[in-house]
Amino acid sequence: MYVWAYLDVAGEEIGRSPRFAAADEAEDWIGSSWPELLENGVLAVVLVDQDGDKRLYRMGLGAE
Q1: What's the structural domain count of the chain?
Q2: Cβ-proximal residues to 57 (8 Å cutoff; 6+ apart), any chain
């Protein structure tokens, strides 16, 4: 299972997305959801593989 961890300006986790069975599903979801997340104070996200408890990559949502 995959989930996006939401990060604030300090890099602290402030929430998580719904869970997805595959990484490509998670990536499709963030592709359409990032504007609303940014509007709500999420400045970056980290894709997390919950099965291996591994952070796969981090992505900023605004201009960095």
Answers
A1: 1
A2: 46, 47
- pLDDT tens digit sequence for 9-62: 899 999 999 999 999 999 999 999 999 999 999 999 999 999 988 999 999 998
State which residues form the domain around 42: 2-60
Following DSSP, what letter does each residue of 1-61 receive, concatenated? Answer: -EEEEEE-TTS-EEEE---BSSHHHHHHHHHHHHHHHHHTT--EEEEEETTTTEEEEEEES
Write phi, then psi, for 45 (nearest 5 degrees).
-135, 155
